[in-house]
Amino acid sequence: MRTDVDADLVLYGDIVTMHEDAPRANALAVTGGRITAVGERTEIDSLIGEGTRVVDVGTACVLPGFIEPHGHPLEEAIVLGPAVVDIRPVTIADADTVVATVIDTVAARGAAGASLNGWDPLLQTGLPEPTLEWLDMIAPDHPLVIMHNSGHVAYFNSAAAALAGITRDTPDPIGGSYGHDSSGELDGAAYETPAVFAVAGHAMTIGSDYPQLLAAECARLNAAGITTVAEMSFDPRMRPALKAIADAGGLTTRFRLYEMSTPERATDAAPGEGDDLVKQIGIKVWSDGSPWVGNVATSFPYLDTAATRGLGIACTHGHANYTGEQIHDISAAYFEQGWQIACHAHGDNAITMVLDAWEQLLQEFPRSDHRLRLEHVGAMRADQFRRAAQLGVTVSIFIDHLHYWGDVLVDDLFGPEHGGAWAAAGSALSAGQRFTFHNDGPVTPANPLRNMQDAVTRLSPSGQVRAPEERIPVDAALRAHTVNAAWQLFSEESIGAIFPGAYADLVVLSANPLDVAPTDLADIEVRATVLEGRTVYGDLNTAG
Predict the structure, then answer these.
(1) Alpha carbon distance 297, 321 (integer Å)
(2) Is residue 344 within 8 Å of 72, Cβ to Cβ?
(3) Nearest to 443 by CA among 300, 299, 289, 306
């Protein structure tokens, strides 16, 4: 393919385009930030001019830049910044060090108050129960908030409750709740996003250092080969800061925004508002919560184990945050305005509830290409994947649960039948789903290559294969973080594959994922990440 303009950049190497018309190539050309040609070297050589940069990546492999279709980067920028102390299991493995870090943080922060994120008694075994009495003992005078690693619970002391204006008489927000003891007093726990944000919101403010925090977040994503990320809990109050950073050239990652639904069921934005760098495309809804704290709506109970007894959830079925009627009404209010809806749903009962609500919704407001999304879908069954596909409902799977909690799910929570089949990508593939994978940062670090390995091998931390029938081929796993993710974000015409006209968003890897052993996928190195032809991580010249 010849153009009238010489290319700015020509890349030679092993190119996996993820485009069905020409899946493999050994050369590509970039002009003005977009792909202008893909093919054989002899076809691309004619595009080289005096000012063309020519790079041969040698033994490395070029793919379209990875897409994280479900993250919280605007929040993660703050959570992984200096205001909040990181105690996630990926950072601190043992309970004693977690507790010591809490105590040290309280002492260091003093009257300013202490905020920490990542509490996880299932992985950090031996943690004390974070009761109000314990929290007040640790921090008797100043605010203390500890967020659970799932993001679905926050633990707070009396000083933090006073700062947030929360008392025993404070009504529960819609979709959330505050814990109370037998006498009706607060017990120091806030459940689900509306209540968690009310308690922890003081730590999630945007300060003058936010551009630097967001730049660091983009750098983390770029280091994982990611060039596009979906923000799944967008607060419109962050819009001015995000726009200012984007206008100043401070973003090295594309953003697709999903605004949190509100009790008012309204937004000031319009579907598709923004540009190809930052665009608001959807609304986020929650049906249930987290498997790690007991509030996922399942048809099967939690096991009776030491872990579930310690969490107070032994033999329970969990629960949904909303009724099916509420899910329908919230979804309908936004869907009628033209929005894509993404709904958090883990338990199989929650998934049935959402599918029932959305089937009714689609009868009332028919739309041929709605791409309604179900998020996480840990306990989703094969028949539910098929039903969703028939309704045109797509899914994003939190496959990394297998890497961290693959043993906990079976041994401590649900047993081999339900815990082993968690995150059933094989069933999604068989149902014809254009599924995606995600890390839900800051819950687990963004890592598309490990997500692919998780899906292909289904290895738990102890090395056991969980539900081997749910394993998928490598090419299907690659699609989950490229073309499928682009489609899910209504962006397939410009990203997700390498083809003429697409943005030159690329990742250069140390090896071709299609050529390595499945257990080696996570060991592949990201050598360089490119956004619109500009290297935003690594070095193209040394990528091979």
Answers:
(1) 9
(2) no
(3) 289
For residue 301, give the DSSP letter.
P
Beta bridge partners of 119: 148
The single residue listed with the structure tokens 């703050």 is 78
Rounded Cα distance between 145 and 69, Å, is 29
Is the omega angle on the peptide bond into residue 442 within 30 degrees of 0, that is, cis?
A: yes
pLDDT at 3 (0 to 100): 52
Which tokens belong to 522?
């996570």
Give the SS3 label for residue 62. Answer: strand
What pLDDT was estimated at residue 2? 46
Measured CA distances, 190 to 80, 148, 156, 195 (Å): 21, 10, 8, 5
Q: What is the pLDDT of residues 434-447, one digit of tens each?
A: 999 999 999 999 99
Answer for the pair 80, 217: CB distance below 8 angstroms, yes or no.
yes
**Residue 410: DSSP 8-state:** I
Where helices occur in 201-346 by DSSP H, the ranges are 210-223, 239-247, 306-311, 324-335
CB 301 within 8 A of CB 358: no
Task: Give φ, ψ of 155 to 5 degrees.
Answer: -105, 135
Q: Which parts of the chain register pLDDT below 70?
A: 1-4
What pLDDT does residue 4 have? Answer: 64
Q: Which amino acid does the sequence have at 480? A: A
- Give which of 359, 353, 400 is closest to 378, Cα–Cα: 400
Q: Are strands 226-234 and 177-180 parallel, antiparallel or unpaired?
A: unpaired
Task: Assess contact for 503 and 489: CB atoms under 8 A.
Answer: no
Within 8 A by CB and 6+ apart from 364, the residues are: 332
C-beta separation of 17 from 498 below 8 A? yes
Cα–Cα distance, 45 to 12 (Å, whole number):
10
For residue 151, which of 208, 84, 249 has the smallest C-alpha distance?
84
Half-sphere exposure of 340 (CA within 13 A, CB side): 29
Alpha carbon 159 to chain centroid, angstroms: 32
Are 154 and 204 contacting, i.e. CB atoms less than 8 angstroms apart? no
Q: Is the dihedral of CA 303, 307, 312, 317 positive or negative?
A: negative
Measured CA to CA, the distance from residue 100 to residue 102 in angstroms comes to 5
Kindly report the number of other CB atoms within 10 A of residue 36's CB atom.
Answer: 24
The SS3 assignment for 402 reads helix
CA–CA distance, 79 with 101 (Å, rounded to integer) = 16
Instruction: Kindly state the tokens that stand for 125.
Output: 């075994």
If DSSP codes are grouped into helix, strand and coil, which group holds residue 39? strand
Q: How far is CA 91 from the centre of its chain?
A: 18
pTM, full prediction: 0.96
**Inter-residue contact 172 to 316 (CB < 8 Å):** no
CA distances from 319 to 177, 444, 539 (A): 13, 24, 49
> Which residues, 6 or more positions from 222, have their beta carbon under 8 angstroms from its beta carbon?
252, 253, 529, 531, 536, 537
Cα 240 to chain centroid distance, Å, stands at: 23
Cα of 428 vs its chain's centroid, Å = 18
